[in-house]
Amino acid sequence: MDSMALFRKKFETYKKIMDEQGEQKAWDTLMEGYPERQKQNMGQYIDNNSLADGFTQAIPFYKQIGMDMAVVDISNNGMDAVVEVQRVCPVMDVAKEYGFDKPCKVICEMDVEATKKGFGNMSGGIIASIADGDCVCLFKYERENK
Fold this sequence. Notes:
This protein is an alpha+beta fold. It contains seven helices and four strands, in the order αααααββααββ. A four-stranded antiparallel β-sheet has the order 1-2-4-3. The model has no long low-confidence stretch (mean pLDDT 95).
């Protein structure tokens, strides 16, 4: 299944559950197993690398799903840290197809939360969002240096 089909399925599922059982149930349902999948997917890049090196290695994967990503190493004060810059939001139109003004809750906020839970030792957050009118999406991730 291509990435856009996967995104569509995620929005479709989230919307259906949200409409029938509420937004919290939709979030909880889609988060089931997500931290483990995120650990499996991203672990290959960051488990034995700095975040900057690992995220940089992941750029070709993100490019395949329509993202234009840059990575900035912001490691400082004993923290291994990175800012992930996404210049393109490939799911903005898909979100609108399912009645969402912004894709952030269903895609980005879930990714950040799954990453934090999947890697236990990592914090993260969304700094800027194209959906909110910013020129790029910015995500920050950090963990204590090993």
